[in-house]
Each structure stands twice: as C-alpha cells, then as structure tokens.
Amino acid sequence: MLWKAGQTAFIDVLPRAPKPKNLPKGTIWHEKPRLSIPGSLWLPNVGYGRIAEVTADYFRTILAKATGGDRKHAVLFFCLDECWMSWNAAKRALEYGYETVYWYPDGTDGWTFEDYPVERVEPEPEPAIGSSPSGIFKRAVSVIGSVRVLRPKPCRPNPSAWP
Questions:
Q1: Whole-angstrom Cα distance, residue 12 to residue 124?
Q2: Among 18, 133, 11, which residue's Cα sits nearest to residue 77?
Q3: What residues of the chain score a pLDDT lower than 50?
Q4: pTM for this structure?
Q5: DSSP string, 90-154
C-alpha cells in the first residue's frame, strides 16, 4: 500500500471555503475541520481548472517541499469521491515535470468507507506575497495519460446486511 510504504507524498486538494465577507459584525466564523489521510499535506484551491500564478507558485513550492525537490518522487492527489480537482492537480503536477503521479478518485470518502484512519489537517501555509516559489488495500492501477488511477477492487453489496 502506497500510504503504508511512506514513499509517496499524499496531497489533499479539497478547496477551502472562504470566510463570507458579509457576515454581520460580531458573528463568529468557524471553519469546517478537514479530516484527511494521515501524513497528507492539504493544499486547498490548487485543483481548479485555472489557477492564478500566485496559486501555481504555492503549488510548486509545496510540491517541492513534499518531494524534497525530486520530481521522480511519487505524488498522489485526492479530494473527495470523484472530485475532479484532484485530477486537475495531478495533471498540473505532470506539467510541472513530476514523473510518478497518482490520482485517488475515491478521496477521503472512499478512504473512510474502508475504515482507514483520518486525522485533522490544516492547510499548508501560503508563502508571503512576492516569495518564489500492496498492504492493507488491494488496488488496481490503470494509466490514463500519464496519471495512474488508483481504484479499489469492486465492492459487491451484501444484501444480508440490509435492514
């Protein structure tokens, strides 16, 4: 299993909801906590179809941190079930020259469905403006373009477990 082996950087790209600008004065804003795959880095907002250059710089900087600057180091992108932002981020990583890129389309929804652990994560801090930039689960791996897609084996419903 890639996660257990610890040789792959797990990157969570779930977008982060902004604080509404029109909140009445005195309103307390509580961000929804993000429960993610243990050890993953949360890079919110890098998976949109188009991103600003400052966001692209942030993405490149954190990818370099996660991989020790080694573009051959494996990276895996996820979000929620069938979240296309993780696909976009994976394709973008290929554009940046990363060679071993995985997409986990089931995201944290699929992860928790399998009863794997999650932990609360905080977004990776954004750089200051102007700075530069086999184990537990058995998976089938297929290749779409150059992004490897990780899919769980098909799950058969268990009618005897239904009420």
A1: 10
A2: 11
A3: 129-145, 152-163
A4: 0.76
A5: HHHHHHTT-SSEEEETTHHHHHHHTT---EEE-BPPPPPTT-----SS-EEEEEETTEEEEEEPP
